[in-house]
Write a structure and sequence with these properties.
With 335 residues, the protein is α/β, with parallel strands linked by helices. Helices cover 35% and strands 30% of the residues. The chain is built from 11 helices and 14 strands.
């Protein structure tokens, strides 16, 4: 069980950017990437920060790990202010992000870890034993002398995690660590993350994979439009949509935007999303519990070839979609 003593504290954290568009008559504006974000993460907690692209997740993480200065507000990591005590924060944290950046492709995994061990100030007497320990932990023992340019995406992500753990950080920031990774490698990475948290490392995780967040996270905050829109355990977030019915409808001959507009316009329909697959489209409809609304939905789709129809319990993904949709409606209303 994690400690309630905060490892990370953000208080009204904000970050804005000045932008310029146009050439002959440039227009200047201010974009608020993060606005008044407040949350805390207990020591040893695995905390998820979820949100759509452009919601402010990575900007928030970069302020917490001292890569960006806040425009306003404050944040502390293990009691150190991220703006005034940046060096003290950096000594205690690790940062792992998805993708191919952050490693030297022409070097071997071993040489990459040697380089970063020097950079992170790992005691020279313990560097090789620490590197060997991490290579074993991430499953790269025996492949460490190969150039990283020949590594698969999953192997690169394992090396990213090893790099981020070299100096035994108390707090680890994981920014979409399983993005683009195959299912087997993703499962191994999730196991590693869960073990880190179980052994006392505080983890702040961003991900687009709801099943991953549901499996791993003690608590979750959903950010949209630069603001925190909801916060709680996965079960608490799912309770927000527990009173809704979720119906999955398989359409075999394709769904048009006009079909979706018709369904969304029905009274009692809260949210409609679509997953387009090779063989069929899957429409997911969140509705208030009612015997009548399902018939109206099917009538609205009357011209389509319907395959299977499934009504199920709401998932964390359903809760997330509902929270983000409400945030977007609020934003549109504000405008």
């Amino acid at each position: 069980m994690y400690s309630s003593s905060p490892a990370i504290e953000a208080s009204r954290l904000s970050r804005s950017y000045r932008t310029r568009t146009g050439w002959l008559r440039p227009q200047r504006s201010v974009v608020e990437a993060v606005r008044d974000v407040t949350f805390s993460v207990g020591r040893g907690e695995l905390f998820g920060l979820l949100g759509p692209n452009g919601a402010g997740k990575t900007t928030t993480i970069k302020m917490l790990n001292t890569l960006l200065l806040p425009t306003s507000g404050s944040a502390r990591v293990l009691g150190h202010d991220v703006a005034r005590d940046a060096t003290a924060v950096r000594r205690r944290i690790g940062y792992v992000f998805g993708g191919d950046r952050g490693l030297y492709d022409r070097l071997s995994a071993l040489d990459n870890l040697r380089y970063f061990a020097e950079l992170y100030g790992v005691d020279p007497q313990h560097q090789m034993s620490r590197i060997a320990e991490l290579l074993e932990a991430v499953g790269l023992t025996g492949r460490e002398r190969e150039r990283v340019e020949g590594y698969s995406r999953g192997m690169r992500q394992k090396l990213h995690i090893a790099r981020g753990l070299l100096h035994k950080p108390d707090v680890l920031f994981l920014d979409e660590p399983t993005i683009g990774v195959d299912p087997v490698a993703a499962r191994e990475l999730r196991r590693m993350v869960a073990e880190l948290a179980a052994n006392g490392t505080t983890v702040l995780l961003t991900t687009h994979y709801m099943a991953e967040a549901d499996e791993l996270c003690d608590r979750i905050a959903v950010i949209s439009g630069g603001r925190i829109r909801a916060e709680g355990t996965p079960a608490e977030l799912k309770d927000r949509v527990r009173k809704l019915d979720v119906t999955e409808i398989e359409v075999l001959n394709g769904v048009s935007d006009e079909d979706l507009v018709q369904v969304r316009s029905l009274a009692g329909v809260r949210q409609v999303t679509i997953e387009r697959r090779e063989v069929a489209d899957i429409i997911q409809v969140q509705t208030a519990p009612s015997d009548d609304i399902h018939g109206e939905v099917m009538s609205a789709l009357g011209e389509l070839r319907i395959g299977r129809i499934l009504t199920r319990e709401p998932t964390l993904e359903d809760a997330y979609v509902s929270i983000v949709a409400d945030a977007r409606r609020d934003g549109a209303d504000a405008e």
